[in-house]
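Predicting holo structure, zinc ion bound.
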Amino acid sequence: MADATAPAFTAAAWEQALARHQLPGARCTHCGAIHVPVRAICPACHSQAMEWTSLSGRARLAAFTSIFVGPSAMAAKGFDRTNPYLSGIVELEEGPKLSVRLVGLDARTPTLEWIGTPLVATFVDPAQGEGGRTELAFAPACGADPAAGAAG
Ligand SMILES: [Zn+2]
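Done. Tokens:
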């Protein structure tokens, strides 16, 4: 049942949640699918019966790439051939997969052993005076050994 007091399932509402360092999803009350970022219409069953759900923030690394030549927005943040960054696909504990930035791993020494590493959500706030939005990222879970990969 839709909660009339809950914010609409918009990109702006999701970004506001990230700015509060919260990771919400939209759960379809018709088929149970969870969508991240949130969306107003379920792509699985086309229902509009969505509800906000909080997510654990726990995930595993499904795939990643090390980016040495990124878009201009990342170049402006100081990423380049000598300072690459990681972008990956993470599978949330609740099931959805999403594309996010990875932090806490060295993009200069990527290894397939990272696949399966337990991760936790982290929130990268824009630098003081920079403006912009809080970015969702994932980092190795506390105590996780990225080299241990799927064994963990
Ligand atoms: Zn659905």
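The mean pLDDT is 91.
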